[in-house]
Amino acid sequence: MFLKFLLLVMLSVAGGARATESVDADTLMPQLIWEKRVLLVFAPDAEDDRMQRQNAVLAAVDAGLIERHMTVIRALGSNIVSVDGDSRAQPADSFYRRFGVDAGEFRVILVGKDGTVKLDRSAVVSDDELFQLIDSMPMRRYEMSQDG
């Protein structure tokens, strides 16, 4: 437990000024509308098997997340929030409350650029399922047509 705390402190210090900023769902989510698709992953803690499996899925497709303009937010227990890998020791309550997730629950929620929930699962989501869903959305199809 002490090592996890020490690692979190080191990550916070390495993050510079951003590490001292508070992340609140009611402030952050409106800032991301029309800019990013948001994938939220809720888990009791970082050691949760489902969280580790979801992290492995996401790590393997980092370029696909970037291509699809995605931000990944992880809420671990009640006191750690990670935005695109930048972890902060702070209350995660605002994220749990905003998305109706109970403490100790594992959930994966995809919020589209329009701010609406597109996927809400209590199981690990594969990269194929996630990307097929996103790529079927009208806004994503438009983005793909502009890129090519």
Q: Would you spell out the secondary-structure blueprint of this structure?
A:
Blueprint: H1 2-14, H2 25-32, E1 37-43, H3 49-60, H4 62-67, E2 70-76, E3 80-83, E4 86-89, H5 93-99, E5 107-111, E6 117-121, H6 127-135, H7 138-147
Parallel strand pairs: 1-2
Antiparallel strand pairs: 1-5, 2-3, 3-4, 5-6
Question: What does this entry look like structurally?
Answer:
The protein has a single domain, classed as Glutaredoxin (3-Layer(aba) Sandwich), CATH 3.40.30.10. It has helices at 2-14, 25-32, 49-60, 62-67, 93-99, 127-135, 138-147, and strands spanning 37-43, 70-76, 80-83, 86-89, 107-111, 117-121. It is built from 7 helices and 6 strands, in the order ααβααβββαββαα. A 6-stranded mixed β-sheet has the order 4-3-2-1-5-6, with helices on both faces. Residues 1-20 have low confidence and may be disordered. The radius of gyration is 15 Å and the shape is globular. The longest helix has 13 residues, at 2-14. With 148 residues, it is α+β, with helices and mostly antiparallel strands. Helices cover 44% and strands 22% of the residues. It starts with a helix and ends with a helix.
Number of strands: 6
Question: Which regions have little confidence, pLDDT < 50, spanning 5+ residues?
Answer: 1-20
SSE string: HHEHHEEEHEEHH
Count of alpha and pi helical runs: 7
Largest sheet: 6 strands, mixed
Overall 3D form: globular
Cα separation of the termini: 49 Å
Assign the CATH superfamily: Glutaredoxin
Please state how the strands of the largest beta sheet are arranged side by side.
4-3-2-1-5-6
**How many discrete structural domains?**
1
CATH class category? Alpha Beta
Radius of gyration: 15 Å
Proportion in β-strands: 15-25%
Structural class: alpha+beta
CATH architecture: 3-Layer(aba) Sandwich
